[in-house]
Specification:
Strand content: 5-15%
Order of helices and strands: EHEHEHEHEHEHHHE
Shape: globular
Oligomer: single chain
Strand order of the largest sheet: 3-2-1-4-5-6-7
Radius of gyration: 18 Å
Helix content: 40-55%
Number of helices: 8
Amino acid sequence: MDLGLKGRKAIVCAGSKGLGKGCAAALAAEGVDIVVNGRGVEALEATAAELRAKYGVKVTAIAADVTTADGRAKLLAACPDPDILINNAGGPPAGDFREWDEAAWHKAVEGNMITPIMLIKATIDGMIARKFGRIVNITSGAVKAPIAQLGLSNGARTGLTGFVAGLSRQVAKHNVTINGLLPGPFETDRLRSLFTAASKTSGQPIEQVAEARRKSNPAERFGTAEEFGAACAFLCSVHAGYIVGQNILLDGGAFPGTM
């Protein structure tokens, strides 16, 4: 299927590794020029070079922390009028809410709620004027089924989801869509860090923790960045203009609900 995206421009936040890289690669495969950021320069430059070589599109690498105003300014300077915005940032640490002070909450909300809202604010009017825009927020399956030890993430990402629920319905008439992709367990550094924390708490080897989590999923596996990226690319396509304000769960069937 031709997604109708050739020649479009995209900002992909935190796209040097993991799910962000999966999204950047899937868009690049459709002929989209990419501005990608990451904090680790080596991984970022390697990803940019890989995408350029494989897909022949323009890829601009911006080494910056997207959760800061300065980092966002650098991204927007490189691509002030994107057609596509993929909001993504590393999740806050796991733990017990009694351990989190006010600063921890501010940091979580800044990274996983305020940052995407500021990028949406900076780009959405241009999308409206051009009559095309696709915004995808990578949040978490915990938005739909909260995970107790991920309280910082639960709160911040659910706040973003609530904000987008209203905004997405205001801009849909301009062919601008905003949707969420909610990953469950995917093979990423984030998942491995959670296994490490669980291993320390339980005393079980990391491999045992990971295998138990894998077997508990109906698919009996973890997701891949490539299949996550494919879902993202479709949401950005010309065929997805009637998908508005949705939160699409990609979790291998882990959520046990009907709807």
